[in-house]
Request: fold
Amino acid sequence: MPQSFAPINPAHDKVFAYPPVSRLIGAMPLVAPSILAADFGHLADEITGAESAGVRFYHLDIMDGHFVPNISFGPGVVKTINGLTDRFLDCHLMLTEPEKYFEPFAKAGADNITFHLEVHPDPTAHARRLHDMKIQAGISINPDMPVERVLPFLEHFEYLLLMSVFPGFGGQAFMPNVIPKVEIARKFIDQHGLKTKIQIDGGVDSSNAAGLVSAGADILVMGTAFFKSQDRAGLVRSIQK
Ligand code: DX5
Ligand code: ZN
Reply:
């Protein structure tokens, strides 16, 4: 969605006030296709096809070759994607210094920016900066980070992105040790009356989706499983119903 840098929303001590998640993306659970697995030679067709399959939320993987051993794409490609869709653009920054790129990605059309607790163990000020830019904020942890480490910060974030692979590449095998983390995070969020949405990222497919949703996940990132599916609409329907 096009972003403008309007004045700061003062209501962000309860950050969820802006913008209302429900207005932007509707009911949960959601399938969030990871564009990394799309055919970049036919990006416009991939987006059009995904939208007719019912997609309302795209996951964009940004890699710096430093925090992760791979390089993907930058704000220019996000801007192109923003021109192809008015759906929600969720940018997952796998970067050592994500804050340097908050503004370029926000200007390119990001609706949410997620960064990693591994690079910012005290992430609150960065969440505030994202909200000051009038976009949402997400915090992510890798499979080897205990979920308890991120819980104290969740009140500042719209999204918790739990990695179910070590980030860097699409198409890796799902690590089931994420399931108890989902359960712990779900319980914490509900007990504290937070609105943080739980996203799972890495190796998610129709074989593990139901277990993730019943553990408490709100958004399932799917790269390979979505773009290799012969029935994308059926896949989205089976999870979003
Ligand atoms: C991994 C990325 C994931 C990845 C998901 O570094 O953060 O978002 O693209 O792809 P699949 O679903 O193929 O594991
Ligand atoms: Zn990702």
